[in-house]
């Protein structure tokens, strides 16, 4: 039995990037799960497990972004002694990259080669606007098409009205109220997981990501757990997993994200706050700080109620965060460039 890789997104562009690696002892595959030093990969022959090659480990020591992650298309090599290794990661079409934990300004790839990224936020008790904005900036920066999925729509008296409120702070990203319990809104998401398409899910614990995966699959493929007594989510998914769906297509589920660090994501921030950016460009002065200066269009929007103080504060906060991470990254690069080359 063979697997049709095109159902998982393999196409002519990926095939072309694989050509330099095409040899009898190698074949392509897509990573469904990446653990420390070992990946689970789907190939035409089915699932396989592979360790990382020395070259990949050396590259990752310099930049963790080089490590394969869920959603990556990779090159597998089968050795005569029975070993299987990941030799290379094919160029990514899109990638969700956040600031890695720790003091060094380095990135961590959460997922790769997504066509759409859904920011998943529950309607109960109430959607968190700040979290949606932050995750949307990450989604826009990925290169995939973002959307917002408001789960647990069955818990809201008027889910359409809630979705309309959230849409005011998600310019360019459609908002879908969804209930996995009664099927509301699922039809709008199914085209995003058609054969060859991959939908990624970002959200906090308890947002209903795993339940949404099960609803799209039509069967239980991900475990789910009830909320804690204090209403906070439990970590159901402990790792990032690419889940192939019956009939083709895939969903990439991620663990609940507690902290989202933006890494040099000015492009994503501009798209996530396109409404604020548009106002700022009409200010009288190009160096306007939007703190009550004459001719400040942002301040005028605050006064008229067109712009909320919370959204402006969120924009300023994320601007400062990205500027700080950019400075740290440039400082790290400068230090590395001053280091003498290693002797061989």
Description:
30% of the residues lie in helices and 22% in strands. The protein is of the alpha/beta class and 344 residues long. It has 3 domains: 5-91, OB fold (Dihydrolipoamide Acetyltransferase, E2P) (Beta Barrel); 98-102 and 109-253, Rossmann fold; 266-338, Orthogonal Bundle (Ribonucleotide Reductase Protein R1, domain 1), CATH 1.10.40.50. Strand 4 (73-78) and strand 5 form a beta hairpin. The radius of gyration is 22 Å and the shape is flat. The model is unreliable at 225-237 (pLDDT under 50).
Q: Briefly note the CATH topology name of the largest domain.
A: Rossmann fold
In spatial order, strands of the major sheet run: 10-9-8-11-13-12
User: How many independent structural domains?
Assistant: 3
Number of strands: 13
Shape: flat
Helix content: 25-40%
């Amino acid at each position: 039995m063979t697997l049709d890789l095109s159902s998982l997104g393999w196409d002519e562009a990926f095939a072309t990037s694989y050509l330099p690696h095409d040899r009898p002892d190698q074949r392509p595959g897509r990573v469904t799960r990446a653990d420390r030093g070992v990946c689970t990969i789907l190939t035409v022959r089915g699932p396989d497990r592979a360790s990382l090659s020395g070259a990949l480990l050396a590259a990752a020591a310099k930049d963790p972004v080089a490590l394969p992650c869920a959603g990556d298309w990779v090159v597998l090599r089968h050795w005569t002694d029975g070993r299987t290794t990941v030799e290379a990661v094919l160029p990514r079409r899109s990638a969700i990259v956040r600031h890695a934990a720790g003091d060094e300004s380095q990135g961590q790839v959460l997922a790769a080669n997504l066509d759409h990224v859904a920011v998943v936020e529950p309607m109960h008790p109430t959607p968190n606007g700040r979290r949606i904005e932050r995750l949307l900036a990450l989604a826009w920066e990925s290169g995939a098409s973002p959307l917002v999925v408001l789960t647990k729509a069955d818990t809201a008296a008027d889910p359409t009205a809630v979705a309309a409120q959230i849409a005011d702070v998600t310019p360019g990203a459609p908002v879908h109220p969804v209930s996995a319990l009664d099927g509301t809104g699922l039809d709008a998401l199914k085209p995003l997981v058609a054969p060859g398409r991959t939908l990624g899910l970002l959200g906090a614990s308890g947002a209903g990501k795993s339940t949404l995966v099960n609803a799209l699959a039509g069967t239980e493929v991900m475990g789910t757990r009830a909320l804690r007594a204090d209403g906070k989510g439990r970590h159901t998914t402990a790792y990032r997993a690419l889940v192939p769906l019956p009939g083709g297509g895939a969903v990439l589920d991620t663990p609940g994200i507690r902290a989202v660090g933006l890494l040099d994501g000015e492009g994503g921030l501009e798209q996530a706050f396109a409404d604020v950016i548009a106002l700022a460009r009409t200010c009288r002065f190009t160096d306007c700080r939007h703190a009550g200066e004459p001719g400040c269009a942002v301040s005028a929007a605050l006064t008229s109620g067109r712009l909320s103080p919370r959204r402006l504060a969120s924009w300023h906060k994320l601007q400062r965060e990205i500027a700080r991470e950019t400075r740290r990254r440039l400082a790290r690069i400068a230090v590395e460039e001053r280091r003498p080359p290693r002797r061989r």
